[in-house]
């Protein structure tokens, strides 16, 4: 958590870090990814067998450079196969001999789905990357029977039909998929089989019961909206309750393990753009209260751990600018990179309530990573993501305090300015198991630098490192030819004042 004192413009600013005050454990799953059958994410992103440059492709047809990039990020978990795509997806179409798999019209993005990649290929890709799969169930045209069959196919060690089908398809051992989503954005007008909150709650609860009877070890994720909607309130009230029948009388669990919410941010105004994730922070806080309210209303015993939020789609995206049915290939600016840094700061600050978060998406579609026939292009947003992935994991959120002036203009969404503080410096900090502290300061001001002595570093200085992500102007982008935005690394001794440049993200690291 970061507390904030608002100062007048020009007043001396300060940042204090308290590494000894560990507030909450960070779940590294906040660095999760998402791969949907959409645009060039799966076909052309993960899987590119026709690429003439054979050095880029492994024996399965996967892009080696994409796998290496995911490994560099140490992506802990990847959501699949959608997204909106999942509302008409029949998993059985995507298993067994490839040549026999049916091609289907695809109704989310209006393409044709070849089914060349399905469950077994995705699991293989996850194994190669070293990440955990997170599967979303079809709540549109799918049935409970199909969902149970998929769970059996993936997780069962018994001598039963779908477990045997998996063996027949070449995989003896169960995959033991832990994370399963009960649908995706079922509230949305764009969904095949859009539902009312009443219909969704009834169906989700009954599906959850059956799925947990088949495999009580799974983690089930309820489909929420944005954390502040009536939908969130209602589905939590109706699904987050004690369930002694399906859980063998357990008083340490409920059927629902996490509550999913989604938000994409974007604004043509660079400061509003960079600060827009602060709306998500408020949404997380409100959603956590809705979770508590459901516990109180429904008498969930204290022995049941608090349901966490699964922010399983987040990013900078303007769907009018990068149209979904055209592949949503956003070109990210420095301002977008700062927004991603603020998003990640939000997850670190709110780690008490975040069980998982998934950047939407991992490759090509609204992604930091773009495949070309020759290799990989790293967009501006790759660099803050890389720094968080390398250094802001495996530890605890620590208390910080920032005193600085604040932005007072219009925000995106407009309500954010009324319900959240908008400091020019967005700050988070953590301490790892190894005692290393990471402090991230995003200066969203377009022209003003801040010079600050960071308090809490320790007398006499440290042997620390400084990483800065910035560029010549807020709207620069990276191209195949030129990386306008990257990371500048230097040593940092913690003595005296540190400069935080305009339009920059700075990460400082030192051993406490
Ligand atoms: O990530 C792109 C799309 O955005 C997803 O398919 C959908 O869930 C959301 O609306």
UniProtKB/TrEMBL annotation:
Which SMART domains does UniProt cross-reference here? Alpha-L-AF_C
- Top enzyme class, one word, equals hydrolase
User: What's its catalytic activity?
Assistant: Hydrolysis of terminal non-reducing alpha-L-arabinofuranoside residues in alpha-L-arabinosides
Q: Does the keyword Heme apply?
A: no
Any single Pfam family the record assigns to this protein: Alpha-L-AF_C
Entry EC no(s): 3.2.1.55
Ordered alphabetically, the record's keywords are: Carbohydrate metabolism, Glycosidase, Hydrolase
Supply one GO BP term: L-arabinose metabolic process
Family affiliation: Belongs to the glycosyl hydrolase 51 family.
Function field? Alpha-L-arabinofuranosidase involved in the degradation of arabinoxylan, a major component of plant hemicellulose. Acts only on small linear 1,5-alpha-linked L-arabinofuranosyl oligosaccharides.
Protein name listed in UniProt: non-reducing end alpha-L-arabinofuranosidase
């Amino acid at each position: 958590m970061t507390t904030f004192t608002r100062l007048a413009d020009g007043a001396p600013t300060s940042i204090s870090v308290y590494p000894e005050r560990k507030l909450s454990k960070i779940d590294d799953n906040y660095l999760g990814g998402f791969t949907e059958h959409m645009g060039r994410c799966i076909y052309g992103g993960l899987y590119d067998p026709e690429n003439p440059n054979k050095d880029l492709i492994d024996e399965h047809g996967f892009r080696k450079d994409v796998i290496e990039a995911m490994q560099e990020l140490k992506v802990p978990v990847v959501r699949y196969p959608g997204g909106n795509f999942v509302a008409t997806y029949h998993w059985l179409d995507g298993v067994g001999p490839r040549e026999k798999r049916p091609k289907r019209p695809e109704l989310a993005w209006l393409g044709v789905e070849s089914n060349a990649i399905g469950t077994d290929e995705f699991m293989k890709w996850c194994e190669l990357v070293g990440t955990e799969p997170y599967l979303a169930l079809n709540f549109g045209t799918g049935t409970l029977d199909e969902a149970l069959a998929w769970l059996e196919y993936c997780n069962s060690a018994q001598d039963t039909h779908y477990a045997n089908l998996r063996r027949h398809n070449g995989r003896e051992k169960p995959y033991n998929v832990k994370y399963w989503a009960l649908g995706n954005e079922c509230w949305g007008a764009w969904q095949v089989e859009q539902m009312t909150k009443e219909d969704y709650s009834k169906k989700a609860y009954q599906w959850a019961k059956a799925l947990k009877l088949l495999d009580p070890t799974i983690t089930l994720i309820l489909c929420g909206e944005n954390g502040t909607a009536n939908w969130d309130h209602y589905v939590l009230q109706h699904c987050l309750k004690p369930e002694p029948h399906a859980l063998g009388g357990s008083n340490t669990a409920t059927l629902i393990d996490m509550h999913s919410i989604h938000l994409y941010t974007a604004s043509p105004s660079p400061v509003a753009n960079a600060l827009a994730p602060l709306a998500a922070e408020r949404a997380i806080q409100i959603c956590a209260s809705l979770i508590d309210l459901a516990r109180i209303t429904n008498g969930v015993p204290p022995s049941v751990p608090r349901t966490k939020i699964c922010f399983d789609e987040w990013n900078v995206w303007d769907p009018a600018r990068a149209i979904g049915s055209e592949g949503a290939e956003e070109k990210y600016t420095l301002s977008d990179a700062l927004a991603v840094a603020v998003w990640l700061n939000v997850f670190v600050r709110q780690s008490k309530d975040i069980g998982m978060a998934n950047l939407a998406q991992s490759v090509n579609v609204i992604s930091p990573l773009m495949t070309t026939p020759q290799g990989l292009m790293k967009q501006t947003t790759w660099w803050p993501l890389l720094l968080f992935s390398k250094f802001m994991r495996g530890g605890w959120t620590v208390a910080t305090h920032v005193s600085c002036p604040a932005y007072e203009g219009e925000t995106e969404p407009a309500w954010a300015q009324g319900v959240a503080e908008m400091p020019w410096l967005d700050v988070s900090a953590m301490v790892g198991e190894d005692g290393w502290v990471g402090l991230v300061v995003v200066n969203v001001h377009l022209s003003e630098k801040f010079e600050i002595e960071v308090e809490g570093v320790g007398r006499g200085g440290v042997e620390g490192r400084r990483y800065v992500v910035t560029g010549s102007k807020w709207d620069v982008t990276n191209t195949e030819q030129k990386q306008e935005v990257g990371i500048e690394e230097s040593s940092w001794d913690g003595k005296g004042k540190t400069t935080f440049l305009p339009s920059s993200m700075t990460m400082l690291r030192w051993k406490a």
